[in-house]
Specification:
Layout lengths: L3 E8 L8 E8 L4 E5 L6 H9 L6 E6 L2 E5 L2 E2 L7 E4 L11 H5 L8 H14 L15 H13 L5 E5 L7 H18 L2 E6 L2 H7 L2 E6 L2 E6 L1 H6 L4 H6 L4 E7 L6 E4 L2 E4 L9 E6 L4 E4 L7 E10 L3 E8 L2 E10 L9 E6 L4 E3 L1
Parallel strand pairs: 3-9, 3-10, 7-8, 8-9
Antiparallel strand pairs: 1-2, 1-4, 4-5, 5-6, 10-11, 12-13, 12-15, 13-14, 15-21, 16-20, 17-18, 17-20, 18-19
Helix pairs in contact: 3-4, 4-5
C-alpha cells in the first residue's frame, strides 16, 4: 500500500528557529491530501523532505512499509518512486510534449514508452498533443503535461507544489478539476501543498492545516470547515464570525452573545465563557422587529455576483459582522436591519 506516514519531523536551517517542529501527518493510500498554511509555516519544507531534496534533523517518513527518512536513513530522491508536479510545470523547453511525458520511463522499450505516453496524455485530456512543444501550450495545458509526466512512471506518491499559482482564476478551477480526476483515475496517493483555502477545500479528500511547523488540524474539508479546532483555524479556512459568549447555566446548550441566545453544536464541559463561532451563511437579514432577531446598522455591502457580503454593526459587539446573502441585495449602507442566527454554533473556551 502507498500510505504516507510522517512522524515527528523536525527541520532547521542553520542556527535559526526550527521550521518544522515535530510535524505529524498520515495520508491514506489513494487519498489526495492538501497541506494548507500561511507563508513560512513549513509546508514546502515538509514537501521537500518527503521528496528527498532535504534531510530532516529528526523524525521519520514512510511510504507504505518502506522507510525513506529516519535515523541513519535517507533514500535519494530518484529512488523514492515519488512524482513531482512543481509550480509552473517546469517542462523541458527543448523536448516535445510526448518526450516530456516519457522522460522518466527509463528502462522501458520504445513501444511501452509510446503506449504509456499516449495513455497519460489521454488521461489528462491532451490526446493528439504529443508533437507540440511546451511554448505552444497554454499554462493550464502545461500543468496537465507536468502531471502526465509525474504519473507516467507509476509513482507510489505524487507531490504537487502549489501547481496552480501561475494560472488566472478563470482557468484555475478547471485545471484543478482535471488534475483531481486524473489522480483518482490512477488511484494515486497525492499531497497538494497550497496556501489557497478554496483550492484545498474544493480539491482534496483530506486537509491538513499547518501552523508554526506542526499540523494544527487534519480532517475532511467539511469537518474542518464545520468543526475547526480553534478560532485561528476557523478564520484561516473561511470567513468566520467570532463572538464573545457565555454558556447559559440553566440549559447548558446555548450561549448568550451580542446576537442573542445561540444554540451550540457541542455544549462545553469546561469553562462557561469563551468564543462562539458562526459562519456568515448562518446569519439572516430580517425586519428589525422579527422574532429572535437583534437590531443592527448596515455599514457596507460587497457584491460578488453569486452572492454578497453585507457588513452589519450590532450593539454590544465592536467588530462589524459579515453576513453572506444570496440573491438580490435589498439593503444599503446606513439602513437599519434585523439579524437572526440559523443553525448551531461552535464554542471554544
Amino acid at each position: 500500500m502507498n500510505e504516507l506516514h510522517v512522524e515527528g519531523l523536525t527541520k532547521s536551517y542553520g542556527a535559526g528557529e526550527p521550521v518544522l517542529r515535530g510535524l505529524e501527518l498520515t495520508v491514506p493510500a489513494g487519498t489526495l491530501a492538501a497541506v494548507l498554511g500561511p507563508s513560512g509555516c513549513g509546508k514546502t519544507t515538509m514537501l521537500r523532505v518527503v521528496a528527498g531534496f532535504l534531510r530532516a534533523d529528526a523524525g521519520t517518513v514512510r511510504l507504505g512499509d518502506r522507510l525513506l527518512n529516519g535515523p541513519g536513513v535517507h533514500v535519494p530522491p530518484e529512488r523514492r518512486r515519488i512524482g513531482i508536479v512543481p509550480q509552473e510545470g517546469a517542462l523541458f523547453p527543448h523536448l516535445s510534449v510526448a518526450r516530456n511525458v516519457a522522460f522518466g520511463l527509463t528502462g522501458a522499450d520504445r513501444g511501452e514508452r509510446r503506449r504509456t505516453t499516449d495513455e497519460m496524455l489521454e488521461l489528462v485530456g491532451l490526446t493528439g498533443y504529443g508533437d507540440r512543444m511546451p511554448h505552444e501550450l497554454s499554462g493550464g495545458q502545461q500543468q496537465r503535461v507536468a502531471l502526465a509526466r509525474a504519473l507516467a512512471p507509476r509513482p507510489r506518491l505524487v507531490l504537487l507544489d502549489e501547481p496552480f499559482n501561475a494560472l488566472d482564476s478563470a482557468l484555475r478551477a478547471g485545471v484543478r478539476a482535471d488534475v483531481r480526476s486524473a489522480l483518482r483515475a490512477t488511484g494515486a496517493t497525492a499531497v497538494l501543498v497550497t496556501h489557497d483555502q478554496q483550492e484545498a477545500l474544493s480539491t482534496a479528500d483530506l486537509v491538513a492545516v499547518v501552523r508554526d511547523g506542526r499540523v494544527a488540524q487534519c480532517a475532511t474539508p467539511q469537518d474542518l470547515y464545520r468543526h475547526p479546532a480553534d478560532p485561528w483555524i476557523a478564520g484561516f479556512v473561511g470567513d468566520a464570525v467570532l463572538l464573545p459568549g457565555t454558556v447559559d447555566v440553566d440549559s447548558g446548550d446555548t450561549a448568550r452573545t451580542a446576537l442573542g441566545a445561540v444554540p451550540l453544536a457541542a455544549p462545553p464541559g469546561g469553562p462557561r465563557a469563551g468564543t462562539v463561532l458562526l459562519r456568515p451563511e448562518q446569519l439572516r437579514l430580517t425586519g428589525e422587529d422579527s422574532v429572535g432577531a437583534v437590531s443592527g446598522t448596515v455599514t457596507d455591502v460587497s457584491y460578488y455576483g453569486h452572492d454578497a457580503m453585507v457588513t452589519v454593526t450590532v450593539d454590544g459587539h465592536d467588530t462589524p459582522i459579515g453576513i453572506r446573502v444570496a440573491g438580490p441585495i435589498r439593503v444599503r449602507p446606513g439602513e437599519q436591519t434585523g439579524v437572526r442566527v440559523e443553525g448551531e454554533a461552535g464554542f471554544h473556551s
